[in-house]
Amino acid sequence: MALEPGTKLGPYEILSPLGAGGMGEVYRARDTRLGRDVAVKVLPDHLSTQPEIRARFEREAKTVSSLNHPNICTLFDVGTEGDTAYLVMELIEGDTLAARIGRDPIAAGGLTRESAGGVPPRASHPLPHAPLTASLQIGWRCASY
């Protein structure tokens, strides 16, 4: 999809790309109503027209919004602009997991264990699949692409 800086999704103005993975593209955006920077996740073009993928995206939003843990970023909003479905999340500043591993592999292992602490047992919460990748953004908390 490659959203250009200045693109508007509802009240969110895209500022720059943050990362991309198989199930989404994440951008830094400005919430023009509240005057804060946020992370906006959109489905890639090749997936956005598939009903089962859109339904999974919506389930992800509902599931994440029901969780409250220091290691899980907060979901602020969901929306659709034209054919683009998007999730708006707390922006987590920090390095990628790949950068942390490069500097200190042992400490990075501790971060992944700490981050996993925010994921409830599958039996109690049917979470959508979200792989741990080297592009995972590490800050005080974690947000995956």
Structure summarized in a few sentences:
This protein is α+β, with helices and mostly antiparallel strands and 145 residues long. The protein has 4 helices and 9 strands; from the N terminus they run ββββααβββααββ.
Describe the structure.
The protein has helices at residues 45-48, 51-65, 97-103, 105-116, and strands spanning 8-9, 12-21, 24-31, 36-42, 75-81, 84-90, 95-96, 137-138, 142-143. It is α+β, with helices and mostly antiparallel strands and 145 residues long. The chain has a single domain, classed as Phosphorylase Kinase, domain 1. The protein has a 6-stranded antiparallel beta sheet, covered by helices on one side. A 3-stranded antiparallel beta sheet has the order 7-8-9. A hairpin with a 2-residue loop joins strand 1 and strand 2 (12-21). Helix 3 (97-103) packs antiparallel against helix 4. The longest helix has 15 residues, at 51-65. It starts with 7 loop residues before the first strand and ends with a strand. The relative contact order is 0.18.
